[in-house]
Amino acid sequence: MRHYRYQILNVFTQDDFSGNPLCVFESSVDLDQNTMQKLAKQFNLSETVFLTPFKQEATSSNLQPVTIDYSMRIFTPSYELPFAGHPVIGSSVVASQLLNDKDEINFLCQSGIVTVNYDIDTNYWTLKTPDYPLSYEKLVPFELDNLKKLFNIDEFAGEPAYVNTGSEQLIVPLASKKLVDEVIININATDIWPTNKNGRKTAYLFSLDIDSNGALSIYSRFLFLSATDAAGEDPGTGSACANLGYWLFKNGFSSPINAKVTQGVKYGRTCNLSLQVSNDKEVQIFVGGSAIKVAEGRYFFK
């Protein structure tokens, strides 16, 4: 009987019951797109990843040769994503195990090459966002008004914008953790929720704090509307964290930027992420976190 091995991981945590769960299929050879989508719906997690051994040379944005270890495809229960951070971090743990504890993994996703490195001191895997054109698009006035109605927000703590460092999301700054936690989706107003270029309705809401030593801390939530128009929340979103990094850069935060990001507290599954932004000739964004395997198994096909 044909079967495929998979692992379940909690990402952005070292705890058994926190972080963002992820399913990773160790090899997707002979699985077509339709079957992958059905499997993602079956597992019904934020994302399910399908790895395929690659071992081919590619060229990075700086024209350097890179050996790709795995191609990866990332699916929510409803659609495929070009890039997502928590699947990359979790898949790094799986790939490292399969490659004899390799501490640098190169993935090829739809948005481009993603390189991930392991730091033994922090137990974090840190990804560099794909070689992808960065974009930043402000909302027009009527979209801002709609956003306030949708989330019952009186004021923003900066300009909301669509940001894309590999997967476009709406980034929404608020003045405090309390205001972030108080946001509730007005389910009767979801028709006015701005839609991104991928046709998704999402919002990454955050507040920031700078302590007396200049350390930057971010508190965030990621809200979305599913393909069935159900309101949801994702506990840990690496691609949105990367987009936040570019938002900070575009809004005057001096490079290098280093921040600790906490997400998923309100949801009940705390995630801890690191965020770095540098601007040495070009903007580079790095998102890090840990992950642990909590289950493994085989999926059988008749």
TrEMBL record:
InterPro entries: Phenazine_PhzF-like. GO terms for cellular component: cytoplasm. It comes from Thorsellia anophelis DSM 18579. It comes from the Bacteria. GO terms for molecular function: isomerase activity. Belongs to the PhzF family. PANTHER family: ANTISENSE-ENHANCING SEQUENCE 1, PHENAZINE BIOSYNTHESIS PROTEIN. This is Phenazine biosynthesis protein PhzF family. Gene3D superfamilies: Diaminopimelate Epimerase, Chain A, domain 1. NCBIfam families: PhzF_family. The active site is at E47.
